[in-house]
User: Fold GntR family transcriptional regulator from Planococcus shixiaomingii.
Amino acid sequence: MLDKQSPIPIYVQIEERLKSQISDGRFPPGAAIPSERELTEAFGVSRMTVRQAITNLVNEGLLFREKGRGTFVAVPKVEQPLSGMTSFTEDMLARGMKPSNQLLTFGKRKPDKQVAEELQLEADEEVFFVERIRYADSIPMAIERTYLPVKLFPELNEDVLAGSLYVFVEGTARLKIGGAVQKMEAALVKREDAELLHVETPFSVLIIERISKLSNGVPFEVVRSTYRADRYKFTSEIQR
Ligand code: 16G
Assistant:
């Protein structure tokens, strides 16, 4: 079954075997994979080798361990193109998933210097601060912290934020969204965010910062989002 003469390390061969059994549906999302002992016997290798293969797949996000219960196949990550300026609601609906939000904070405040600059606000202009957990099929995917100029959205309220912000911007507020500049970086989740995202520290996240503009060039939102790295894979098409 395994090729012991191959220059490909045995643990990598086991990883590949498990990966193909996951992708062909033999082990569907949520299913338990065989125990370390069973795999050790089935492959005729040491327990260390099996453990190394499984640990690599756990670190890649394909499997997850539950203490005392075993190792299970993770739900596949959402593949999110970085090209179009879509909303969370649109992205999840397009994948046949049900989006929902938990509004943690909503209120007016004076922005800090950086947000004020990014939104090109005068000294006394206020922002709405919105903090939402975004769910897909009831799984927490991301925390979004959004700053919006009050002068652009005087009618913004909690009901709106239970649904799609972009539907409100384009529908109710009748503004045309132009584009955005985004920055993305990897980080370990902060302790307070770990609880909100239902993960245990240490846990990898992707931080995206988006500054969005209307089609007339006026900035309308600054968003700092923390995405669970086990739920997202960002893709982009590039040309030379
Ligand atoms: C996305 C955007 C966020 C925007 C939100 C609106 C990124 C990094 N963020 O999550 O900037 O505010 O969609 O979603 O893509 P909604 O219309 O569903 O409220």
About this structure: Residues 78-235 form a domain with the Chorismate lyase fold (CATH 3.40.1410.10). The mean pLDDT is 96.
